[in-house]
Structures are given as C-alpha cells and as structure tokens.
C-alpha cells in the first residue's frame, strides 16, 4: 500500500481551509498515518524543495512556506500519490478544474501560482524522500 506526503500550505491554514482539505481526503477514503501542525524551517524547505533550487520563484516560495504554520500529513491507500494529486488539481489555481481543491478553493492572490493551498508528493520516489524529511520516524 502506498503512502504520500501532503501539506496544507500557510495560505490554506490561514484561510481556515485545513478542515475542508482533511474532509475531502477522508471522503475520498485515504487513511491518515500522521497529521501535525508544523512550522517549516529554512533547512527543512531546502531539502523539501531541492528540485526547485535556483529557479526564479524559489526564494519567494520558501519565504511563503515560512509565513505561517502548515498542516503536514502522511496518507495511506492504494495509488494515493496519484489520487491526491488528482484531488488537488493543477498547480495554477486559476485554471485548476472545478471539483478539485485548488480549483474550488484557490485563486491568484497576486503571487501567481504560489498560493495553491496544498502540496502532494508527485511520485513514489518523491513520497519516500518527503516523508523522511517531514516525519523522520515514519517508514515511507
Ligand atoms: P506541489 O504539490 O506544491 O509541489 O505543487 P506542484 O507539484 O503542482 O508544483 P511544482 O512542484 O512545480 O512547484 C512547487 C510549488 O512552487 C507550487 O505548488 C507553487 O506553490 C510554486 N510554484 C511553482 N511554479 C511557480 C511559478 O512559476 N511561480 C511562483 N511564484 N510559484 C511557483
Ligand atoms: Mg511538486
């Protein structure tokens, strides 16, 4: 059975959307293996976003992710990596499909696509890596 790392990003927590995101995950049928309100650190984010280091939006992204607490969780269920990405919708909330978390609850607030409410691991390799970063004591 697969596991994936999901974050409700600072914009989602600030806007009071944590419960709505959790509700959609539970309604979909995935199980919570871990769930915690966390403050990210610069070190943790450097690991988490290593693939984006050097990109033009990187510094703004890290600053945004440090702007408030995140709700970090590990989900479990068959094909939950793909399944949660599908629940989340496209990266850009302006054009994410209605019915998705980003499409229903997100929009452009002036930071382009940055404030898009949630993160979900994009592959089994990313999931294993990210679960280790956020929940060192857990098995991926
Ligand atoms: P995550 O699940 O958060 O990883 O989103 P994603 O996989 O759909 O997007 P990606 O990994 O490509 O980018 C990570 C995050 O960086 C996005 O979710 C956005 O918050 C932010 N981001 C991506 N591209 C841009 C961009 O062009 N400009 C800005 N400002 N932020 C971006
Ligand atoms: Mg990504």
UniProtKB/TrEMBL annotation:
<dbReference type="GO" id="GO:0046872">
    <property type="term" value="F:metal ion binding"/>
</dbReference>
<feature type="binding site">
    <location>
        <position position="91"/>
    </location>
    <ligand>
        <name>ATP</name>
    </ligand>
</feature>
<feature type="binding site">
    <location>
        <position position="85"/>
    </location>
    <ligand>
        <name>ATP</name>
    </ligand>
</feature>
<feature type="binding site">
    <location>
        <position position="102"/>
    </location>
    <ligand>
        <name>ATP</name>
    </ligand>
</feature>
<feature type="binding site">
    <location>
        <position position="116"/>
    </location>
    <ligand>
        <name>ATP</name>
    </ligand>
</feature>
<feature type="active site" description="Pros-phosphohistidine intermediate">
    <location>
        <position position="119"/>
    </location>
</feature>
<dbReference type="GO" id="GO:0005524">
    <property type="term" value="F:ATP binding"/>
</dbReference>
<keyword id="KW-0479">Metal-binding</keyword>
<comment type="subunit">
    <text>Homotetramer.</text>
</comment>
<protein>
    <recommendedName>
        <fullName>Nucleoside diphosphate kinase</fullName>
        <ecNumber>2.7.4.6</ecNumber>
    </recommendedName>
</protein>
<keyword id="KW-0546">Nucleotide metabolism</keyword>
<dbReference type="GO" id="GO:0005737">
    <property type="term" value="C:cytoplasm"/>
</dbReference>
<keyword id="KW-0597">Phosphoprotein</keyword>
<comment type="similarity">
    <text>Belongs to the NDK family.</text>
</comment>
<keyword id="KW-0547">Nucleotide-binding</keyword>
<dbReference type="InterPro" id="IPR023005">
    <property type="entry name" value="Nucleoside_diP_kinase_AS"/>
</dbReference>
<feature type="domain" description="Nucleoside diphosphate kinase-like">
    <location>
        <begin position="1"/>
        <end position="139"/>
    </location>
</feature>
<dbReference type="Pfam" id="PF00334">
    <property type="entry name" value="NDK"/>
</dbReference>
<dbReference type="InterPro" id="IPR034907">
    <property type="entry name" value="NDK-like_dom"/>
</dbReference>
<dbReference type="InterPro" id="IPR001564">
    <property type="entry name" value="Nucleoside_diP_kinase"/>
</dbReference>
<keyword id="KW-0963">Cytoplasm</keyword>
<keyword id="KW-0460">Magnesium</keyword>
<dbReference type="GO" id="GO:0006241">
    <property type="term" value="P:CTP biosynthetic process"/>
</dbReference>
<feature type="binding site">
    <location>
        <position position="9"/>
    </location>
    <ligand>
        <name>ATP</name>
    </ligand>
</feature>
<keyword id="KW-0418">Kinase</keyword>
<feature type="binding site">
    <location>
        <position position="57"/>
    </location>
    <ligand>
        <name>ATP</name>
    </ligand>
</feature>
<keyword id="KW-0067">ATP-binding</keyword>
<dbReference type="InterPro" id="IPR036850">
    <property type="entry name" value="NDK-like_dom_sf"/>
</dbReference>
<dbReference type="GO" id="GO:0006183">
    <property type="term" value="P:GTP biosynthetic process"/>
</dbReference>
<dbReference type="GO" id="GO:0004550">
    <property type="term" value="F:nucleoside diphosphate kinase activity"/>
</dbReference>
<dbReference type="GO" id="GO:0006228">
    <property type="term" value="P:UTP biosynthetic process"/>
</dbReference>
<keyword id="KW-0808">Transferase</keyword>
<comment type="function">
    <text>Major role in the synthesis of nucleoside triphosphates other than ATP. The ATP gamma phosphate is transferred to the NDP beta phosphate via a ping-pong mechanism, using a phosphorylated active-site intermediate.</text>
</comment>
């Amino acid at each position: 059975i697969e596991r994936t790392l999901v974050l409700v990003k600072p914009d989602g927590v600030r806007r009071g959307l944590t419960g709505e995101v959790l509700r959609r995950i539970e309604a979909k049928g995935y199980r919570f293996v871990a769930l915690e309100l966390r403050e990210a650190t610069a070190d943790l984010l450097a690991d988490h976003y290593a693939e984006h280091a050097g990109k033009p939006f990187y510094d703004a992204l890290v600053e945004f992710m440090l702007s408030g607490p995140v709700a970090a969780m590990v989900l479990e269920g068959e094909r939950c990596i793909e399944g949660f990405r599908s629940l989340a919708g496209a990266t850009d909330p302006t054009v994410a499909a209605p019915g998705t978390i980003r499409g229903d609850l997100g929009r452009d607030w002036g930071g382009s696509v940055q404030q898009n409410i949630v993160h979900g691991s994009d592959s089994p390799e990313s999931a294993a890596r990210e679960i280790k970063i956020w929940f060192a004591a857990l098995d991926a």
